[in-house]
Amino acid sequence: MSETIHLTYIFDPLCGWCYGAAPAVETLMQQDDITVTAVPSGLFSGSGAFPMNAGFAAHAWEADQRIAKLTGQAFTEEYRRNLLESGAGNVDSGPATLALTAVHLTEPAREFEALKAIQSARYVDGRDNGDAAVIAAVLAELGLDAAAARLAAPDDELRAANRSRIEAAQAEMRRFGARGVPTLIVGSGADARVVNSSALYGSAKPLLDALRAA
Question: Which CATH fold would you assign to the domain 5-213?
């Protein structure tokens, strides 16, 4: 029997490149010989959050078109119009990150499903997933009522777990000198190494072959 391959996937729910990587990450998660631990980096949360502005909007849309060509992921006109061109709202992954930690505490097996729904709400439906009310609605639509309730009234346990997850992700990024997300780490301890993130765009087969051959 082959040895299990352990992967750590570091992401931010408002990162377009992470949205682009979602199909490949999901394929990795479906493999019997691979375990994937997904942890949020906090890139656009807390002090990393900022109001939407024209410069960021233009930069994001240009990157989004590259991501779409590489991965086939959809970035709709609703997203462009409602979130980039409106000039309203914040680039703030704090509510989405906290929501994912709430799912992690209540129904951990569904966390990646929740992440995909949060990403789809933004990039496909044009809903502001920097807004806590939108995030709560997404959780409710998935039937994640316990997580939605915890998000509505965050307690010390939820906040501490959220901080711990972000700190763990950031420590791993510092350890490997990773400058952004998505970051994919294979292995643990001294044998761990970063996988080139370009492997997460397009077909996952070359990545799977490389992981199994290592």
Answer: Glutaredoxin (3.40.30)
